[in-house]
Amino acid sequence: MEETASQKSELKKSCVNCGAELLYAPGTTELKCEYCSYTQSITPSVNGFEELELKPYLEELGSRSHSEEITMLHCKNCGAHQHVEENYKSLHCVYCGMPLIVEDMYKEDWILPGAVLPFQLDQKKAHQLFKKWVSGLWFAPNNLKKAAIDPQNTKGLYAPFWTFDAKLYANYTGQRGDYYYVTVPYTTTVNGKSVTRTRQERRTRWTFASGSISGFVDDTLIKASHQKAGIIPPKVAKWNLKELKPFDSSFLSGFVTEKYTIPLKDGYLSSNEEARKIADRWVRQDIGGDTQRVTSIDMKLTDETFKHILLPVYISAYRFKGKRYNFFVNGQNGTLSGERPYSFWKIFFLVLAIVIVLGIIILVTQL
Ligand SMILES: [Zn+2]
Ligand SMILES: [Zn+2]
């Protein structure tokens, strides 16, 4: 009998020596036992990437063949839906740090990821980056450093995204603008006298343009999570998708996986807007000249496919004086960004000091 995807991912990955659960070791293609250091390599999938044909999924979301039931935990505080692998010990929401209640677990269908970008940085490294960042902050309250000490607060999350591929074809009409320069006389006043001078002015010659463009739109990345609480900053949300691996649940072992909360249909609408922007760019290139006016674009997308992919990010959620802050590290390349509190008193005293110094300078110079 053929093994189904759901049976495969339910397989326990345990250590042959000591029976402990094996965790994915970032930067490798191995599972590792954190107790006895036994390693087991993750066999590369022979199936390659699963690009799924879009139309059937838009019409009947979750065609049974590529979805499976997984256990989800819903955070009542911030609304995140996250899947926690059995071997993940701490049940706290990655976004807001609130404890998750096992009783709130429920099973639901999700479209299986077609690819995953495995973590390259381990949790220790991510937490070090966080600590370094905190210690380098100007005007941060002193006890923020204490809040940053617990490494348990930095968690690895596989964030969900949709990617779309399509062939793009478009007919267009517009105008091509070419610059030219004319010499224009003008009058000005020099030493009380009126004189005539000339200057160069730029003009545009417009000519009608029309034609067609075509090409392949590859890997349009659309976020699939609408976390208001913890939006991954654009600076951090840049991954090299060339490193994507065919999906294997082994890569998720030891990490939290978030379920998409933006449905495929909505993701598809966003990808269409992206395709329109691409078409506009290609049309402008095709028209050429120095500047362009685009009157109409009649765009068609064919051979549309999509993938559900998981991308790695570390999130540190920390509370400070009742307010929540998030710090993010890209799990592939270590780019970081975070929100931070300011110390009112540190800034207050600095401003006060500046005012005093200025006051003294003014006093001294007027004596
Ligand atoms: Zn072991
Ligand atoms: Zn939460």
The coarse overall form would be flat
Overall pLDDT confidence:
84
Indicate the proportion of strand residues.
Answer: 35-45%
The SS-based structural class is: alpha+beta
Number of domains: 1
Number of strands: 15
Largest sheet: 12 strands, mixed
The distinct bound ligands, ions and cofactors come out as:
zinc ion
> How many distinct helices?
6
Q: Could you tell me the radius of gyration in angstroms?
A: 28 Å
Q: What string gives the helices and strands in order?
A: HEEEEHEEEEHHEEEEHEEEH
The portion of residues assigned to helices is: 10-25%
Terminus-to-terminus distance: 98 Å
Low-confidence stretches: 1-11
Which secondary structure elements does this structure contain, and how are they paired or packed?
Layout: H1 5-10, E1 22-25, E2 30-33, E3 39-41, E4 52-53, H2 54-59, E5 67-74, E6 81-84, E7 106-111, E8 115-116, H3 123-135, H4 144-147, E9 154-190, E10 193-223, E11 245-246, E12 256-258, H5 264-287, E13 291-320, E14 323-330, E15 336-338, H6 344-366
Parallel strand pairs: 8-13, 9-12
Antiparallel strand pairs: 1-2, 2-3, 4-13, 5-6, 5-7, 6-12, 8-11, 9-10, 9-13, 13-14, 14-15
Bound molecules: zinc ion (2 copies).
